Amino acid sequence: MTVDLTRGETGRVLSVAAEAGLSAPQTAYVLATACWETAGTMRPVREAFYLGARAGAYRDGLRYAPWYGRGFVQLTWRANYLRAGEALGVDLLADPDRALEPDIAARVLVRGMTEGWFTGRRLGQFISAGGSDFTEARRIVNGLDCADRIAALADDYEAALTPLDTALLRRGMQGAPVARLQRALARGLGQALTDDGRFGALTEAALRAFQRARGLTEDGIAGPLSWAMLITEEEIPE
Fold it and tell me: What is the model's pTM?
């Protein structure tokens, strides 16, 4: 399974992660979890979707139907739909299929992993400023099931969030990475910006505007989350 920051609803998950203030390693693990749980589609799915034509009958027979698993991670049981709905201000009991809406699914994914909705284990317990344990972090959702494979995906996502040619950029820097930043900002903001490779006042103002519009920390520094959202927009054809 390969990582791709343009696949499916990855951009939506990135936006919600940024709003929640997740670090790049935390965001990488959230993305890895969603990628694994959705079989690489990065789109909300129903429980047992892999059964094809037999999936409906399987879901109908579950003890917790109609509140079977939906989303980027499997939200199951009535009590959990109630909890998530109350937290997000959405009635998921009356219409559990709303858990498949990309924005709602992304918020369940991020808040659920951050606040420990699924197993009582939280993202910050395994991934913090003190270090990252991508293998043990699987306990946030489902014991250690396929933990090593998801950890490998998280490593790949973390690398994708900080590609070598898009390192941390700030005012005063020069070179090809700055020119790429300027082109990405021009595209993301829909406005003209000279790609002269010089990170000056105009580039900083444009970056701050982009960060503000995308719910990122408005610091005028092109870090991993800013780059992730710029790359996502940069590579999706209009």
Answer: 0.75
